[in-house]
Design goal:
The protein has 242 residues and is α+β, with helices and mostly antiparallel strands. The protein contains 9 helices and 6 strands, in the order αββαααββααββααα. The strands form 2 sheets. Strands 4-3-5-6 form a 4-stranded mixed β-sheet, with helices on both faces. 27% of the residues are buried. Bound molecules: zinc ion (ZN) (2 copies). One of its GO terms (molecular function) is zinc ion binding.
Amino acid sequence: MVIMGNTGAPIVTSKEELLQVIPRRGPIHRPCAKCQKSPEKGKTFMECAQCKQSHYCGRECQKAHWKEHKPLCLQRKAQQEGWARAEEAALKAGKIFYSPKTSQAWYRKNTDIVSHATFHVLELYKGPSASLHRTHIAWFELSFDKDKPKDVDAISLHDVKAAPLDIIGERILGAATVAHIKHGIELGMMPCIMTNKELNAMTMEMHQAPEWRLYTSGLKKPDENWKIHCILMAGGALDKVV
Ligand SMILES: [Zn+2]
Ligand SMILES: [Zn+2]
């Protein structure tokens, strides 16, 4: 596939080129929420039995993290119960239900794209002080297929923007989530939100930031066409035309 840029130069010429820009990294391996250790390749850590979202290398780390994790865990559990109720009500009323679980599944499937887009939209290549890393969240707008609302492969990536953390935090996320985000940022994570236009399938993830120094040292240049590359890759456009 060839897309012509303003200058007449091709932006993307082949699938290989795109994979060079956004390498496929496979499924995510969540680090221990306490010590940040990563599991061995192909393995996953035990998950919190309550929220099923935080992972731990062992009981010791889980126990040590509980006091800090508790507010977020309770909030997540309440949120999941809320989703289940909303789904039941929607189905009863004969309405389409866009589940946040589906956008969560989309994230897990597309972490390579999320990583690339978040890095660019938060301008991490500018370095720790000049980037939007501490003040903004990467906001992913997804389009669900209304005929297949639970089909993660029917979701398409519509847009990615940088959203101010204080506004989103106050209006949508709540204090416990903002505290979790700020802590994650300190540990080098990039906050991102996956949602749809109607804001009824929202999910938040903390994504491990790539190596900043590669960019700040000038070894690697940011991808000027990151948005079009991400949309192409998320839409599987190249798979269809190449
Ligand atoms: Zn641990
Ligand atoms: Zn939990």
